[in-house]
Amino acid sequence: MVYLRSILYTGCMFLSFLVLASIALLPFLGHKQRWSIAKTWGEINIYLCEKLCGLKYQIKGLENIPREKCVLFVKHSSVYEIFVLLKHFSPSSWVGKYELMYLPIFRGVFKKFKLIPVKRGRGSEEVIKVKEMGKERLSTGNWIIIFPEGTRMEYNKSKKYGLSGSILAKETGSMVLPISHNSGKYWKRRGLVKKQGIISFVIGEAFSTNNMSLDEINKVAREWIDQNVSV
């Protein structure tokens, strides 16, 4: 039953994306309407995960969310955190893989929702792009969501953080808001099965990047995120 429910949910997830993304890309919709649809997609999938797979979430630290938009450093282990981030941090500009833009609907999503596509292996060229595009997105009232490890990781493992997020925060004087969770415990990286349980999300206290080096910014964020992954 676990496999059957997981397969059923996965089908529903892709179907809901195709339907709602197609609606959100209609040319006559405004910015707020598009983001309302995106947030609805996240909430629908949170509901479906609970009803079909018995997978729910709890979140601590909502009171730590600052009023002023800033840069979010988020652990990336599965797809589930995307739903929760859409629910609590919309509108937002996400740093994502450029390769997704080869897919017709994703290409439209990147453009209409002002996401930030990054090509892997381009080094400083892509870091500069994240910095410039991130500045513009922050100025228009979007959160900036970065998965600093650059890829999905097992929930209890970590790797060196990239510099683009810390550079963006430093250049704009933005706070960094660290977010940790253990979604990968129940929905493994590239895994089909969604296990029953309660995913724990923790939102830390936003910290200023003033008088901090890029390495210090990453060190503070990484240590907090790793320490707050519930096992």
Describe the protein's architecture and organization:
The protein has helices spanning 2-24, 31-53, 80-88, 104-112, 124-139, 164-172, 214-227; strands at residues 55-60, 71-74, 92-97, 116-118, 143-146, 176-181, 197-203. It is an alpha/beta fold. The chain has one domain (57-227). A seven-stranded mixed β-sheet has the order 1-7-6-2-5-3-4. The chain is globular, with a radius of gyration of 17 Å. The two termini are 25 Å apart.
**DSSP summary, beta strand count:** 7
Kindly, what is the distance between the CA atoms of the first and last residues, rounded to a whole number of angstroms?
Answer: 25 Å
Task: Specify the overall morphology.
Answer: globular
Overall average pLDDT: 92
Strand content: 15-25%
Overall number of structural domains: 1
Q: Give the uncertain stretches in residue-range form.
A: none
The radius of gyration computed from the alpha-carbon positions, rounded to a whole number of angstroms, is 17 Å
Q: In which order are the strands of the major sheet placed?
A: 1-7-6-2-5-3-4
Question: How do the helices and strands follow one another from N- to C-terminus?
Answer: HHEEHEHEHEHEEH
Tell me the helix content: 40-55%
- The number of helical segments is 7
Structural class: alpha/beta
Largest sheet: 7 strands, mixed
